[in-house]
Amino acid sequence: MLRRIVRHLEYRSFLNADKSFRLPHFFVPVLMTGTDEFAYGITIQGKIGNAVLRNRLKRRTKAWFSNHAKVLPSGIKINMIALKGAAELSWQELSLEFDQFAAMIQT
Predict the structure, then answer these.
(1) How many CA atoms lie within 13 A of 93 on its CB side?
(2) Cys staple from 25: which of 46, 70, 86, 107, with CB 3.0 to 4.6 Å?
(3) Pairing assessment for the beta strands 76-82 and 2-4 based on DSSP bridges
(4) How far is residue 76's CA from residue 88's CA, in Å, rounded to a whole number?
(5) CB proximity list for 59: less than 8 A, separation 6 or greater
(6) What is the pLDDT of residues 9-46, one digit of tens each?
(7) Tens digits of per-residue pLDDT, 62-104?
């Protein structure tokens, strides 16, 4: 089951992350929950770009996760924190980066 994190309290729990991954354009803290769901959050700061770029990045991230819900492992919470240059990625580049991340968390 796929769920998007929207509550501030859940985002604060990432301060004590179990693992973290560094991708070229994202930093991803990971929490092991032991539940039967995969939860993800998206954090994009204002310095990443203007509102149009930030919202497009959020829409693309949500689309990728909804398209790949069946291959994501359960019992994990992640927070995709955008880094500099993430808003300029094309859909193909973003998908490739997220595919590489999905392969990393499978192990």
Answers:
(1) 11
(2) 86
(3) unpaired
(4) 28
(5) none
(6) 999 999 999 999 999 999 999 999 988 999 999 999 99
(7) 999 999 999 899 999 999 999 999 999 999 999 999 999 999 9
* Dihedral sign, Cα of residue 102, residue 65, residue 37, residue 22: positive
Going by DSSP bridges, is the β-strand pair 76-82/38-43 parallel, antiparallel, or unpaired? parallel
Amino acid in position 73: P
In the chain, at which residue ranges do the beta strands (DSSP E only) sit? 2-4, 19-22, 26-32, 38-43, 76-82
Cα–Cα distance between 76 and 83 in angstroms, integer? 22
What does the pLDDT read at residue 34?
86
Give 63's strand partners.
none
The model's pTM: 0.92
